[in-house]
Amino acid sequence: MITSNITSGSLLIAEPFMLDSPFKRSVILICEHRDDGTVGFILNKAIEMKIEELIADFPEFDAQVYYGGPVGTDTIHYIHNVGELLDNSNEVCRGVYWGGDFEKLKFLVNSKLIKPENIKFFVGYSGWSGGQLEEELNHGTWITDHMYANYAFKDDKDSLWSTVLNNKGDIYTVIAQMPESPSFN
User: Between the CA atoms of 183, 144, 163 and 148, what dihedral angle is there, to the nearest 10 degrees?
Assistant: First the structure.
């Protein structure tokens, strides 16, 4: 049995043979992990929408929106790297914050103090009930790693899964080279 070292700021990397479409080759940032459940966001599944299309009174802002996961797909969430500017932000790990005062966020965007490269918006989230994530880890569904702010704000979303595995090293560099469809291997 694997013991979970999951904390806020951990990454879950989908194992290469996961065929479940919402999580296939996904990299998930865990923002909250407690005994009663876990919340995270898929960092590498962009959707073709801008935030001002989803929220009517949001200033025009050229920030990509991502599919955060299959839970609460009628909700909007965000992570950012400007926690010192945005009141009530929760630090997830060094250089990454979750949430914060939404009205102040709109003001900071409108004032051009927050730029698209400082923030990532999500529709929905990935969630697990108490003990569920540990069970999935025991079954080998996920590979774990540490989060680095560049994964969220600098790295290319299309190659993030491979990048994280390459950076993890050892056998994971081999896994990172696997084709997306195992039949091409």
Answer: 160
Token pair of 24, please? 């296939």
The model's pTM: 0.92
Q: What is the Cα–Cα distance from 74 to 45, expressed in whole angstroms?
A: 17
Q: State which H helix or E strand residue 93 sits in.
A: strand 90-93
d(CA 28, CA 12): 5
Q: What does the domain layout of the chain look like in residue ranges? A: 10-184
- In the numeric block, which tokens belong to residue 99? 């949430």
Residue type, 184: F
CB 138 within 8 A of CB 2: yes
Give mean pLDDT in consecutive 10-residue pieces for the chain, a chain of 185 residues: 75 87 93 96 95 92 94 97 96 97 97 96 97 93 95 91 93 82 55
Do 14 and 126 meet the contact criterion of CB atoms below 8 Å apart? no
Contacts of 169 (CB under 8 A, 6+ apart): none
Range 10-184: architecture per CATH: 3-Layer(aba) Sandwich (3.40)
